[in-house]
Amino acid sequence: MTRVLIVAASLDILGGQAVQAERLIRHLQDEPSVQVAFLPINPRLPGILRKLQSIKYVRTLATSIAYILNLLREVRKYDVIHIFSAAYLSFLIAPTPAILVSKLYGKKILLNYHSGEAEDHLQRWPRSTRSMLRLVDKIVVPSEYLVRVFAKFGYEARAIFNIIDLDTFEFRQRTTLRPLFLSNRNLESHYGVDDLLRAFANIQREIPDAVLTVVGDGSQRNALENLANELQLKHTTFTGRVEHDEINRQYFATDVYLNASKIDNQPLSILEAFTCGLPVVTTNAGGIPDMVTDEITGFLVPVGNYGALAARALKLLTDGAASQTMIERARSECTKYTWSVVGPQWLDVYHSVAKK
């Protein structure tokens, strides 16, 4: 049996990596050939110490100390340390300590890199990334796009797709599409929610009763709400953070999914929209063209072209036959992201890395 420790954000940090870690752990617990455990990069401090995590700056220091102490205590018990990774400063704060502690104990290291910002990260932060990447035994990424990015810098990576659980999302047949639009991304600049709002302004000029629900939170929320006011958008709601087990309601209540990413990899929200029966209109950022085929499983537009985003969304509403075919093809596409396909690939990686 291979003992695997997964190091990642918990769902206290709601985002794609936390969701993927939770799904992976849940499925691995049913696999007899592995023993899996979880170590969060954002541990909750016990008792009265938890108050430290409510103080800006002190929070980061206290959480980091607790995280490193947990690594020192737990890593030695496992054969393979599976470390989720983002880019830039996050790479230094979370994966780097886990890599160093794993190396200290002589453990096999699997780096699971998820960020669509990989190319810029690897180019602009060469020293901190190269020194760490040389220490890992295997790099796994969720898309062929990131395989190509890492290859540019001389690193071999293997693609294992993100996991989508079809049973946890409710498919709704949409015979007629209503102008009810959904965005479900963190409100950060590289996800292009500003362009999405501009696209919706164009849509609303054509369909004044159109509705937009913006799910998510982030550093750009105030700026985006101000932009919505400047654009005089009506029927536009910013929900803030929606827990993952509640997001199904948002998909169920809307009819078209919009995504205006400027930088991206393999958005879980697009897969979830596919699963729920929402047709997708998205930019072609990063790895998105590897998962969305233009005019087959969704509509692709150039990054930054919010006019095209709006035009394609309006086309969906007026071409019922094409949208229904697109919905059916997109849902079929989701099978390659299910555990029955993805699971054996993870097991193969774990066992092969453990034997190195």
List the helices and strands and how they pair.
Elements: E1 2-8, H1 16-28, E2 34-40, H2 58-74, E3 80-85, H3 88-93, H4 95-104, E4 108-113, H5 118-124, H6 126-133, E5 138-141, H7 144-152, E6 158-159, E7 180-184, H8 193-206, E8 211-215, H9 221-230, E9 236-240, H10 247-253, E10 256-259, H11 268-276, E11 280-283, H12 288-291, E12 299-301, H13 306-318, H14 320-333, H15 339-354
Parallel strand pairs: 1-2, 1-3, 3-4, 4-5, 5-6, 7-8, 7-10, 8-9, 10-11, 11-12
Helix pairs in contact: 8-13
Pick out its properties:
alpha/beta; Rossmann fold; 12 strands
Describe this structure in words.
The chain is an alpha/beta fold and 356 residues long. The model has no long low-confidence stretch (mean pLDDT 93). The protein contains 15 helices and 12 strands. The strands form 2 sheets. Strands 2-1-3-4-5-6 form a 6-stranded parallel sheet, with helices on both faces. A 6-stranded parallel sheet has the order 9-8-7-10-11-12, sandwiched between helices. The chain folds into 2 domains: 2-163 and 338-354, Glycogen Phosphorylase B (Rossmann fold); 166-336, Rossmann fold (3-Layer(aba) Sandwich), CATH 3.40.50. It has helices spanning 16-28, 58-74, 88-93, 95-104, 118-124, 126-133, 144-152, 193-206, 221-230, 247-253, 268-276, 288-291, 306-318, 320-333, 339-354; strands at residues 2-8, 34-40, 80-85, 108-113, 138-141, 158-159, 180-184, 211-215, 236-240, 256-259, 280-283, 299-301. The protein is globular, with a radius of gyration of 21 Å.
